[in-house]
Each structure stands twice: as C-alpha cells, then as structure tokens.
Amino acid sequence: MLSAENGAFDQLRSDLERLAKKLDPADIHKLGRYLIWPLQRAEVDAVLSRIERVKSLVQISLQGDHFVLSQAIKNDTQKTHQRIELLLNDTGTLIADTRLIKGQSQALQDGMVDASNGISDLQTVQKEQELQQVAKWLSPLDFKINQSYYVQKRQQGTGEWLLKSAEFETWMQGNRETMWCPGIPSATITDHLEKLYDLDDSIAVLCIYCNHKEHLQHTSLNLIGALLKQLIQNRLIVSNTLSNLYRKHTFHNTHPNLDELIKTTKSEFTSYTKVFVIVDALDECSEKDGTRENLLHNLRALGITNLLVTSRYVAWIGRMFDTTSTRLDIEAHKEDVQKYVEGRIFRENRLIRHIKTDPSLQDLLIGKIVDSTNGMFLIAQLHMDSVASKSNRKAIRNSLETLPMGLDETYQEAMKRIYDQSRDDRELANEVLSWITFALRPLSMSELQNALAIEPEKSELDTDAVPDEEILLSVCAGLVVVDQESGVVRLVRKFFTRENIHLNSINHI
C-alpha cells in the first residue's frame, strides 16, 4: 500500500526532507558551498527517479481504486435498481391489493347497504303485516270501502251549497259540535273533509255507514273498533297503547270489551287536535241491545269529536239530539240534480244518439227530471234509468210527460217496467230482488249468480245455468246496483223494506 510504513509515500517524504535540509542556509559556514549548488547530479537523479516511481504508483493505485470504486458504484447501482424494481413490484402489488381491498370494501359497503335495505324492507313488511293484523282484529267492518264506493257514484260538483252553508261552517270550525242532517247520504261531507285535511296529520276524519242488512256485524264493539281501525289506516302506524292492547289479548286469545275500546279510542284521540266523525243512515243502525242509542252515547263520550249524523226524516231520530245540536235539512238542490242529469246523459249511448238527432230533447229531459225529483237524487236516478232504456225519441217524450213525482210512485214505475218485460226477464228480476231482500247477509255478485243457478233436483251446480251479471242488473230496471269496491249486490235505495219489495213483486209478477 502507498501509505504503509516504509512504503512509497514514506520514502518520498524522506527524500524531500533530505533535499530540503541540504538547501537550508541556516549553517553560515556552509553558505558558500550552497551558493555554488549543493546537490550532486546523481543524487538528484535518484530522487527524481524515486518521485517518478511514486507518481506512477500513485497513478496506478488511483486507477485501481477508481476501478474498484466504479465497480462498487456499479454494483450498488444495480442493487439499487433491483431494490427499486422490488419496491416498484411491491408498490404495484400494494396498489393492486389496495384496489382489491377498495373493491372488497365497496362490495362490503354495498352488501351492508343491501342488507340494510333488506332489513328495512323486512321491517316494512312486518309493519304492514302488523297493521293489517291489528286492523282486522279490531273490527271486521271497513267503512273506507263504503266511502270509496259512494264517492265514485257521486256526481262531481253537487252539494256545494251544503259545504258553504253557515251551519256546516260553524260545525266544522267549532269543537265538540253535533249536527243532524236528515235527507241524503254523507259521502259528500266526508269526501270534502278528507280532501281539506289530507295533509294535516293532527286532524282525523272518520266515518260509519250503518246498514240494516249488516246488523249482525254492526255491534257496538265492531263500530267503535272500526273507528280505531280507520286511525291505523290514516296514519299507517300502531301506537304503543294499541299495540300493547293487541298483544295482551292475542296472547290470552281474548278480545277487549267495549269499555277497553272506548278508553283506547279516547287515548288515541288525544294525539289529534280535532276528530270528525260522520255517521251515515243512523236509522239503519240496529236497535238490538241498544246499539243505536249506545253508538251516539259512546261517540259523544270520546271527547274532542265533532259529530255529524245523517238519516231519514224520522221523528224518533230527531229526539235523540238535544237543543244544543244543529239541524240542517239536506235536499238535492235543482242545480245539483241538473249536474247529475247532464253527467248521466253523456254516459248513456242511446240518449247521446237521440239527442244528437234532436238537440232540443236534452233541455226537455233535464227540465222535466229536475222538476220531478222533489229534492231527492234517487228519484232522478230512477227516472234516468227509465228514459235511458227507451228505443226512440217519442217513447222518451211520452215517459217525460208521465214522470211520477214521489219516491213511492217512482218505485212503482220501476216495478211496472220490470213487469212489462218478457216472462223470463220478469221471473229473473223477481228472484234477484227476493234473494237480495231476504238474504241473512249481503251477497256478492258471484254468490247471487250461483244462488240463481241452483236447481233443486240436482246435487251439482251447472255453470251453464249461471246468469250474466249485466243481464241481472238490466232486468231489475235500476233497482239493483253492485258495490264496485266490495262486490256486494244491493238495492239502489237502502230504505226499501222487505215487505215493500215482497208485496210489489207479488202484485206485479
């Protein structure tokens, strides 16, 4: 090594030191000699030779070191590249893993969202099932179906005078107000209130439709239960109070008594600022076990209820309302009847064709029917049923000249139209009216059709004997209609009595 002991650098240093010493003028006695040149040629050549040799060694050493260093740098560079490649590979793997994890994380997140949605859907289904179960448990009666049917049958724009009357406005704006409205069904009132307060969850609009044909189901328990049922249908929730009542009784396989239902209903009503209850045809509510009187008593005891009752013009019904109650007699105004007749004309193909040929017939038809109704929509309906069946304009004019003015006369006219049909149609109409009138419960159209097809001498039903629905309705001259919501077949006017139908059927057929 150049820097090793006695190596090239040490020898070079020694030579240079000797030269320096010889050239040093410190010795005054030797000064003269130094001025001459103290060094001999051979000595100088030897020193220069050694310097040149050290120089060569240094160069060679530096070249070797440079090579070694370059090789080391090269090796380190290669190792660095390898490490970088490994790092890049690791980075790529990390990125791929990150993407994989991200994808798995997104999939997991989507799965959690799906699971959450699934749980939410399941909870919704369970909630709907609970709503249906509790509603069905509370009462078999569903007056929302009745309301929907009567609203569909109602002629738009009629009854506006009633809704704008001072009596109705006072009842609607007051608290714990009671009003008796003898005259017409209540669908117009209920429909108006439902639309008016549709977006206000703090106000409830409830209805009860009494029907003497359903007296076995129209018990006090079922009627009050039906109000609770409508509260569930309106808000689509079951309160804790009602849920606890349901669980308590279903666990013991029991049903709440009337006091429990009234208490629960009063509790539910407290979550509303106002509750409207509309009772339709109170005179048809059963008198058995005091159901009719108890119904009014129970409704008045519920607290914040605004109660409106409709019925026929019956004195004993009027006596059920004290002097603090408002009475508003409801009749079909001529404007309402005219709207009904005009709307009906354009739904009858025969009338449209007749009026198209003779436009003056329309004004005659509207004027005659409006003047003959005596404030009752039913009379207008039956008159329209009569004229709509005429095959020519002369028959329509003759019919309009002899329109009966009262309900009984109109009913007799309908029975006469039935009698004037062929023998087969008369007999079919008689059977239809008899089944509807004397059945222990309301019949659906399919039940009525099957009943009419029964042949006493045969043990099996012959489907070829089942009469067509449209034929059944047409032979009854407008006295029979089908509830499109429930499918129940009924008389057009629920106030007809069994005796009335039976005696007239015998007399005419």
Short précis:
The chain has helices at 8-22, 31-36, 41-138, 143-153, 160-163, 166-173, 187-196, 220-235, 240-252, 258-269, 291-300, 315-318, 334-345, 349-357, 360-372, 377-388, 393-401, 407-419, 423-438, 445-453, 469-475, 498-508; strands spanning 178-182, 203-209, 274-280, 305-311, 326-327, 443-444, 480-482, 488-491. It is an alpha/beta fold and 509 residues long. Strands 2-3-4-1-5 form a five-stranded parallel beta sheet. The protein has a three-stranded antiparallel beta sheet with strand order 6-8-7.
List keywords for this structure.
22 helices; disordered C terminus; five-stranded parallel β-sheet; 509 residues; 8 strands; alpha/beta
Characterize the structure shown.
- With 509 residues, this protein is an alpha/beta fold.
- The protein is 62% helix and 7% strand.
- It has 22 helices and 8 strands.
- The protein has helices spanning 8-22, 31-36, 41-138, 143-153, 160-163, 166-173, 187-196, 220-235, 240-252, 258-269, 291-300, 315-318, 334-345, 349-357, 360-372, 377-388, 393-401, 407-419, 423-438, 445-453, 469-475, 498-508, and strands spanning 178-182, 203-209, 274-280, 305-311, 326-327, 443-444, 480-482, 488-491.
- The protein has a 5-stranded parallel sheet. A 3-stranded antiparallel sheet has the order 6-8-7.
- It is elongated, with a radius of gyration of 54 Å.
Q: Poorly predicted ranges (pLDDT <50, ≥5 residues)? A: 494-509
Overall radius of gyration: 54 Å
The shape is: elongated
Provide the succession of SSEs: HHHHHHEHEHHHEHEHEHHHHHHHEHHEEH
Distance between the termini: 146 Å
Amount of helix: 55-70%
Largest sheet: 5 strands, parallel
Global structural class: alpha/beta
Biggest sheet strand line-up? 2-3-4-1-5
**What proportion strand?**
5-15%
Number of strands: 8
Determine the number of helices (DSSP H or I, runs of at least 4 residues). Answer: 22
Name the average pLDDT.
Answer: 80
